[in-house]
Design a protein that fits this description.
The protein is α/β, with parallel strands linked by helices. It has a single domain (8-222), classed as TIM Barrel, CATH 3.20.20.70. Helix content is 33%, strand content 18%. It has an eight-stranded parallel beta sheet with strand order 1-8-7-6-5-4-3-2. Helix 3 runs parallel beside helix 4 (101-111) and helix 6 crosses helix 8 (207-222). Bound molecules: D-xylitol-5-phosphate (DX5) and zinc ion.
Length: 225
């Protein structure tokens, strides 16, 4: 995984057909997806249950790009090894998921994946002040986590603040929730480079339509960078 600030579109398989995940992953990758975003929900940290390490391991051979695993689970530490072994390229924990964020980040670093931290809408950028050198990605939630298909909450101030904090460090800024061709330019202009899109991609009727929808989001974002 080479670092770049180019816009990357990461379809979230939360909105895909769970009975055909391998095909759903190939269909978006063959049609322009840069990363595959995998949403893990535990019914405790968030009010929904999605999938776990076994499904991650099962879809891993179908992913040629980057498996970007977003853990919406608490506690997270005891499961990090399982997700690393399942083949996560990026492993993201929530800053709100436990009292010892620094320890969780170091643990991910030791396990091997790139290290991500997600921030709920109510959590300020400043919680990352003392861990900014430990991370490879910040995921700015633009919905309250738990469900796909919710409307976008504007967090452009937070993205701009993160850009200042990050400076020239190789840290991605990812946007997760409510990304569409209308909202993508707003966050791209503020400095985000990874755009997660669930329903806005998988609402397509077939693979060709996934490709058109990915392209629309990318062009809208690139107009602002
Ligand atoms: C929200 C998840 C998101 C979600 C995005 O809890 O982390 O990744 O699936 O879905 P859309 O793009 O439909 O808002
Ligand atoms: Zn997510």
């Amino acid at each position: 995984m080479e670092f770049s600030r180019d816009i990357k579109i990461a379809p979230s398989i939360l909105a895909a057909d769970f009975a055909a995940l391998g095909q759903e992953v190939r269909d978006v990758e063959d049609n322009g997806a840069d990363w595959i975003h995998v949403d893990v929900m535990d019914g405790h940290f968030v009010p929904n249950i999605s999938l776990g390490p076994a499904i991650c391991a099962a879809i891993r051979p179908h992913i040629k790009t980057v498996m970007d695993v977003h853990l919406m689970i608490s506690p997270a530490d005891q499961y990090l090894e399982a997700f690393a072994k399942a083949g996560a390229d990026v492993l993201t924990v929530h800053a709100e998921a436990g009292p010892h964020l620094h320890r969780s980040l170091q643990y991910i670093r030791d396990l091997g994946p790139k290290v991500g931290v997600a921030l709920n809408p109510a959590t300020p950028a400043d919680v990352l002040e003392h861990v900014i050198d430990e991370i490879d990605l910040v995921c700015v939630m633009t919905v309250n986590p738990g469900f796909g298909g919710q409307s976008f909450l504007p967090m452009m101030d937070k993205v701009r603040r993160l850009c200042e904090m990050i400076g020239d460090r190789p840290v991605h800024i990812e946007i997760d929730g409510g990304v569409t061709p209308e909202t993508a330019p707003l966050v791209a202009a503020a400095g985000a480079d990874v755009l997660v899109a669930g329903s806005a991609v998988y609402k397509g009727a077939d693979a060709a339509e996934y490709g058109r929808l990915i392209k629309e989001i990318r062009s809208a974002a690139e107009r602002e960078t």
